Here is the input.
Amino acid sequence: MIQRSTKRKANIKCPPMGLETMKIDDFQLHASTTKRYGLGAHRGRLNIQAGLYEDDLYDGAWCAGRDDPLQWFEVDARRLTKFTGVITQGRSSLWSSDWVTSYKVMVSNDSHTWVTIRNGSEDVIFRGNQEKEIPVRNILPTPMVARYIRVSPQSWFSSGNICMRVEILGCPLPDPNNYYRRRNEVITTDKLDFKHHSYKDMRQLMKVVNEMCPNITRIYNIGKSYNGLKLYAIEISDNPGEHEAGEPEFRYTAGSHGNEVLGRELLLLLMQFMCMEYLSGNPRIRHLVEETRIHLLPSVNPDGYEKAFEGSELSGWSLGRWSSNGIDIHHNFPDLNTILWEAEAKKWTPRKTSNHHIPIPEWYLSNNASVAVETRALITWMEKIPFVLGGNLQGGELVVTFPYDKTRTQGVTRESTPTPDDHVFRWLAFSYSSTHRRMTDASQRVCHTENFAKEDGTINGASWHTAAGSMNDFSYLHTNCFELSMYVGCDKFPHESELPEEWENNRESLLVFMEQVHRGIKGVVRDAQGRGIPNATISVEGINHDIRTAADGDYWRLLNPGEYRVTARAQGYGLTSKKCEVGYEMGTSTCDFTIGRTNLSRIKEIMERFNKQPIRLPHSNKQLQAPRSRERRQGTS
Here is the structure.
């Protein structure tokens, strides 16, 4: 028997059931008819994205096989559920314009006898979409308790067809006998603040963490957004506020696309977790904090987040993605790939153009360049701190991408374009994906169009889609830092109720990836007097990408296990090489270098000290005076 709930106030509180997040499996979705397989009921999920080409297996909606009011889209909740609302979109497509403008809603307990939602004596006709992308939410006049729910289109865009993407709002009722539900539940034991945080809430939470752990945390900002919001970061270290020689620097950033908010919340959860676990004496966390300087920047684009914060279900796919002046921050960095590749083609490397720390072009630094203030703040931060490893958390997919992000062949949109450190990047990407609860799960449904699980949840960025000026490529070519992108969930803006499970999905991955900063070799490059040499170059034989030492002469070079011939050199100094070995156990191998000044550099230094004038030594003058006096005596005689 269909039941009507008497608590109207509960309508808004019921969360999305999970069509977008994939909590609802494909076999729970049904439809009256289907245009073709790629437009089947399994594609009728809110915000699902279509492939570039039509008529493939991954189209962007459920589309009915016929256009008439007898069509329907059905969701089987597999248990009694209090249904409170429906959210709809049109079809995701570059070429077609299809959406439903009105619909009825029906519920059932057995999928045979259906009750249409009524308002008094009349069937309710819910207003649908006016275009294909902006989600429209309708709340049922009275919550309905049932197992099945159907959406039945009544009218649609006159130049299109019946096509829908749907999310259902509903609260599952308690059912201890429902094995299917219990098998799929994920419960966290961490006592953390699982909610979406506004800008003000985020600042307050960071302050609370700092007050809980004042000895290992420091809050600072790297600059301001276009609208003047500070870009706050928190440092976690046993000596916050200073770089310790020999200790690597690590960073996580999130929210460069303001509507991809899961990464932002994961970093806020991570800082809480690390503080609490450090205080409780967790040896793993204590080791991380004492041996690493960790920086967490949860919101690169706070302006975009404020736009998307209108509602997790109604933010759509792109609202809030860009900065306030319309710039995609993550792809707003200078394109150093082209500079390097052109130099290599002309055989200018390494004499005229280095294979690392490539300078930023002058045009990019001008005030007229289309560069977001957030991007400039990030670049200054990346240049100031000698980061070794970094990850930027994004959303909308389940995959880890690594450089290069831009294809080397001009005009090609997808092409494997590896860096000289491809093997290291592949390991780093796998360290995250393999410890994520869902990324490498072969049974995990495709988020949109790509099956990344068959590639171990990782992909070279350019193999996915080319993107010039990415943060990952810039970080690799302009600094020492190896940067990767973690796409941490299909849903860019998951409902608050999903955050505990998403934390469980990503917690181990976040920790394991941080620990990879201690893989490879480290050391100090010193002169003959034992002083550290900054900006010395560290080269590894067989890898055409060098790094540089930090201000104290210390360096870190990420490498996979093996034996390597490593060379240290610096301007004005000679060079020295040695064999360095990286083991399979976690922890960097120490490889120090001592290099001496070259004769030429000593001469130059002396010349500069005396303003490049010939040096007149006192004893030389006496030697010159004796012959002259003899000459005068001879002339007199």
The chain has 14 helices and 27 strands. Confidence is low (pLDDT under 50) at residues 7-11, 620-637. The first strand starts at residue 3 and ends at 4.
